[in-house]
Amino acid sequence: MGADMKTQLLNDIHKLSLEKYISEIVGSVMEGMLKCKTSVDVAACVEVVSALHQRFPDNFTLLLSGQLSKNLQPPNKQYLATLSAEQKEKEESARITKQRTYLRIACELWLVGVLRSVTDGAAALSSITTNGVEAHRDGVAGFVNTTTSTGNSSTTKDQQKKKDEHGFVYSVLKDLLANDMEQFINLPLVASFLKNYGQTIMGIVPRKQKAAAEQHAESIALEIDPESVVSPDIHGLLTSLMQNYYKSVSRHMVKLHKAVKKMERHNNETLFARGELSEENLDMPDLPEDEAANKQSSMVSNSGNAFQQDGKESSNVGSQGMWEDEDARKFYEDLPDLRILVPDVFLENQTVKKDEEEQEKEQQPEEEEIIENEDVDPLEEAIENVEDAAGDEDGSTKPTQNAQLEGFIARLPNCANRDLIDAAAVDFCYMNNKNARNKLVKALLKVQRQRLDLLPYYARFIATLNVYFSDIGETIIAALTYEFKGLQRRKNQDLIESRVKNIRFLSELAKFKVTPAHTIFYAFKVALDDFTSHNIDIVCNLLECCGRFFLKSPETSARMSGMLETVMRKKNVQHLDSRYSLMVENAYYQANPPDKPAIQIKERSPMELYIRKLIHEDLCKKYLDKVLKQLRKLHWEDEKIRQFLVKTFQKIWKIKFGNIHLMAILASGLNRYHSDFGVQIVDGIVEEIRMGLEQNIFKHNQRRIAVVKYLGELYNYRMIESPLIFDTLYTIVTFGHEYGRPARERYCPIDTPNDFFRIRLCCTLLDTCGMCFDRGSSKTKLDNFLVFFQMYVLSKSKPPMDVDFMISDTFEMLRPQLHIIPTYEQANEAVDRILLEQLKNIQGTDKVPEDRMEESGEGSDSSSAEEEEEEANQLDDDEEDSQDESENAVEGDEEDVVVLKKKQEEISREDEEDFEREFNKMMTDSIESRKFEKKAAMLDVPIPMNLRGSQDRRTIARENNKPETGKMAFTLLTKKGNRQQTKIMEIPSDSVLAVSTRSKQEAEREEQKQLKQLVLNYEEREEAAARQAVVDERAKLKNQTRGKKVLYIPGGGSTSSGGGGGW
């Protein structure tokens, strides 16, 4: 019956033969009416029904009128009496929903003339004849066992005519409202009727239209259509019906309001008098003790004291308790007892008698009207209200007492810890009187808006005094509640600090059980009803301050959990900005933290903790030797300690990035004494690099950078050789690519074209140890890899700026004169040429031994002077340790001890033989290379003394200052008689004389450098020998003092090894 099916239905109505299916059509029309929710669907439904009425006016319209009048009848009271309260509520709710739709469509059909009166309807086709033939009895559900409204009616003809004159809508509404003058269940139907047809049928002018007419000083004239079905009589009857129903509803609401106000006033009096509401004083029915009772409406206040715990104390400390930790629990629960600290005479509270208070309350009006005044501060209003309630102050206070009180109040803002605020509570007891209490209340209420840190301490102060001076707590709660209501009437955003201070003060007092629970929930509900702007701040501050306390308290847990669910639902439904959304989430999870298991701290042995302290805390350049000695002194035979050390040295990403080279020094130092330990470290590092290439997890990128740098540092400190570095470099750029070669046309899932992290790995490794590959075969290998690396970079997409700068910096540091290949095709051709040359070299000659010798030579040359000094120091330490061990062994035996050093002797002999072999080869090569050198002609003419030094100076000046002109200056020496003469001649620099002279000068400079290096090496060897002699002398002295003989079988192992190390 909706708008989308209107056209098809109208065509079917005009074309199809439907006379035999009238009852089925009526039933379907009644079902389709219930699906018309919008105005467009209602209009389409009216048009379809009108078409059916035009074609079948004698049977369809009568059946439709009967069914509509039946569905719009009031419910059967006898049937409702048999239902329970819950079933009755559901039944009435379903009936109201159904009748609201039927009433709207019936009004539309009545206005267009389809429906006329209730008496026109027929319940079945049995009483209707079509063309003189009686139709069959309709068996549609809902039409059986019903009485006809025409033939079998019990009304008289006069009554039928009278009803016909009133119309269909009036008859239906009169029957509905006549039986609903007590519970007013049909009020939604009346509201829907007036909303949709108040102007059309009732002639009610909307308020907006009336206001616009008054603004323009125009009069509104109601146009009466003479042909309309709404005659003046029907209009008067409907108006009278609605006015009578409105008066009945008004009387009922006023009666309920008075009853609620009376109950509320009675409960407040009981609450403030006794501190709790007992079941005897409640004029409310008993509620079931199930979960439904806990989900009552937030409009109803709590029916009991939320803080009665029957003397039971539970452990509410921790992540699932109401307190964060033990200190918080002590702060809010362990209050000082003033009766122990103060004499009883100072704790007497002289209050007004209860009878006089009750008389004053009876004289007050039932409900105080709060006058809005935007110019008055709500806090000032609250304080004035407190002063009015307190009455006249005691004027008998002495000036000295006033001075003491003012000094005490001035000292309160400085009481920012528990001890000071407890001492202040004790001090106040000695100046206690009515005037002092009133001034104290004013001072506590006037706390600065920015000093939110004082509110917990002020709340503790009030809670401590409230035990013996209850009027302080009651007055402050009343003032804060009054201020809260005043702030809610003002929607200004500039009062946000006052709102936050007010709600946090109430919340802190609630945690001390001074503020009743219903007051907090009332503020919570008011803020939730208008969950916008400043109210969001109120809700968030309330949850942060006392949300966890109420959620974990057994008495308020169910209600607070429901309020929290409401908060999250409102947050999800409303479109809050990011700031408010984040505030709500933080407040929610602070009040209701998620259940997480406690983090289990890994238990470590004392030895493991000591190793971690050495590595993670003590390791630095200054204490490097100390840490190395301590690690060497560990019990390396213990497998657990050994495995822990291996794990620590392999997980280099847990070390500071600046200490990676120090870890490499430690690993190199320990590898000299525990070679298998070094092998395990290198294997773990290589495996970690390969695993990173396989997984390619983004969060492990920093770890992978640290591991690659660690590998480069291990090469710098001679733990690994260059082949492993080059294998790692090629593995990084080729792993996962088909045929072991990256290419643009082949896609690699673990190394996508827009992934540049492998480039970072290569640059990090080259920056760490690439400068060592500057001679021999390693230089050639690095040059070849740089070409391959350029091809790998060009096979990817255009790198970002930081990666591009990193590549440029690496090339600039390693090969400043390197030719940068611009295109991928050129780089691919260069790689093919390199591979072809390597293939020819492999097929021609086997150069593996030479490469190994050159690489070993490079490794030895790459050591720095600092490493040699460290080795010397470590060697001294080793000698001292070995001597101490030998001395300990001597002390244990009385006989002579023979210490054999055969292993050292064999090692020294091997070193000696290698040295002799290398030296002989070097001398032979030198002699062979000089056999075919041409002897230069010696100049037998002596050079003047004044030209020897000047020649060198001129050469240096020419090289440094003079620009290149393509010529070389020579000094021509001639002799005329007995006098020598000189003349400057310029010869082209490409001539044979200039070239040979230049090459000779360069050869002489190179020879001088070599001689200088040899002299320096000789001096270093002499110093090392001197140190070794001192060590030997010291050892001999120690052996002599022991009085034992220690026989050494001499072999010169240490001396030989020391001399060989210098070469």
Topology:
Blueprint lengths: L5 H10 L6 H12 L5 H17 L4 H12 L5 H5 L3 H27 L17 E2 L2 E2 L22 H10 L1 H11 L8 H11 L9 H9 L16 H43 L16 H4 L31 H8 L4 H4 L12 H10 L14 H13 L8 H13 L6 H12 L4 H12 L9 H12 L3 H20 L6 H16 L5 H13 L4 H19 L4 H17 L4 H14 L14 H13 L5 H9 L6 H12 L9 H12 L3 H21 L5 H16 L5 H13 L22 H13 L6 H19 L6 H14 L9 H21 L3 H14 L3 H28 L4 E3 L2 H28 L15 H16 L6 E10 L2 E10 L3 H51 L3 E3 L4 H10 L1
Helix pairs in contact: 1-3, 2-4, 3-6, 6-9, 8-11, 16-21, 18-20, 19-21, 20-21, 20-22, 21-22, 22-24, 23-24, 23-25, 24-25, 24-26, 25-26, 27-29, 28-30, 29-31, 30-31, 30-32, 31-32, 32-34, 33-34, 33-35, 34-36, 35-37, 39-42, 40-43, 42-43
Characterization of the model:
The protein has 1063 residues and is an all-alpha fold. Among the domains are: 3-129 and 164-209 and 231-251, Serine Threonine Protein Phosphatase 5, Tetratricopeptide repeat, CATH 1.25.40.180; 332-348 and 379-385 and 404-514, Serine Threonine Protein Phosphatase 5, Tetratricopeptide repeat; 516-592, no CATH class; 606-720, Serine Threonine Protein Phosphatase 5, Tetratricopeptide repeat, CATH 1.25.40; 732-840, Serine Threonine Protein Phosphatase 5, Tetratricopeptide repeat (Alpha Horseshoe), CATH 1.25.40. The protein is built from 43 helices and six strands. A two-stranded antiparallel sheet has the order 1-2. α22 packs parallel to α24. The longest helix is centred in the last third of the chain and has 51 residues, at 992-1042.
